[in-house]
């Protein structure tokens, strides 16, 4: 295995890990709000969060590139802060990955929160528990399967990204070249042996993820 392949694997794992943490921090309040609110904006917000499921990655990547480019509002903002531009950087990959994998974290959390119902929350309220105490002492333990599923799916989906990372990160070795791009480079160069190793590894990884979720999900539902 080439040194560039090992670098791509490490970069992919780092990207997926950081993206998953950020998705849990951002996606949890969004999912909780969607599960509890009756506001008219619930539909539009839910549609925006779910949009990456149906939007082609190249389209999403293109508009992110426009927004984060030198003439886009995000690009102008980051430049005004002295941070430079996000495209073709690891930070840009993280931003794009968070947006692209958002539904894979929000949807499991939303389903877990909705399944809790009102009775546990009402019982906590009768004991004069604060909203924060109720959430961390009651909601989070009951929604544990949702958090585990969201973490696994968010991580796995980020590992398999291609179109969005190509548009935002390009293919810079050691900087933005992730595992999917490394496979593409080997195939383009007709280097099928290393491509088989990397692609086979991703195939096994994906199978194990689905097998684990299918096997342990019923057990996770038990109190």
Topology readout:
Layout: H1 3-36, H2 42-50, H3 57-68, H4 73-80, H5 90-116, H6 119-126, H7 131-142, H8 144-159, H9 163-169, H10 179-188, H11 192-220
Question: What does this 3D model show about the protein?
Answer:
The protein is mainly alpha-helical and 223 residues long. The chain has a domain at 3-54 and 101-160 and 177-220: MetI-like fold (Orthogonal Bundle). It contains eleven helices and no strands. Helix 1 packs antiparallel against helix 8.
Quick overview:
The chain has a domain at 3-54 and 101-160 and 177-220: MetI-like (MetI-like fold, Orthogonal Bundle). It has eleven helices and no strands. The chain has helices at residues 3-36, 42-50, 57-68, 73-80, 90-116, 119-126, 131-142, 144-159, 163-169, 179-188, 192-220.
């Amino acid at each position: 295995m080439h040194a560039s392949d090992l670098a791509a694997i490490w970069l992919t794992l780092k990207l997926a890990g950081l993206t998953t943490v950020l998705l849990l921090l951002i996606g949890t309040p969004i999912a909780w709000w969607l599960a509890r609110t009756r506001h008219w904006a619930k539909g539009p917000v839910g549609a925006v969060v779910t949009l990456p499921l149906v939007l082609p990655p190249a389209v999403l990547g293109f508009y992110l590139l426009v927004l984060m480019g030198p003439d886009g509002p995000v690009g102008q903002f980051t430049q005004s802060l002295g941070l430079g531009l996000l495209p073709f950087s690891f930070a840009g990959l993280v931003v794009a990955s968070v947006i692209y994998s958002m539904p894979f974290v929000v949807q499991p959390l939303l389903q877990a929160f909705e399944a809790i119902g009102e009775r546990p929350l009402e019982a906590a309220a009768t004991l004069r528990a604060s909203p924060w105490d109720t959430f961390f002492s009651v909601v989070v333990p009951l929604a544990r399967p949702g958090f585990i599923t969201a973490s696994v799916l968010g991580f796995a989906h980020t590992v398999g990204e291609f179109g969005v990372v190509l548009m935002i990160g390009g293919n810079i070795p050691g900087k933005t070249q992730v595992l999917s791009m490394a496979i593409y480079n080997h195939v383009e160069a007709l280097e099928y042996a290393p491509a088989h190793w990397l692609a086979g590894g991703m195939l096994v990884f994906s199978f194990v993820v689905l097998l684990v979720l299918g096997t342990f999900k019923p057990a996770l539902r038990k109190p």
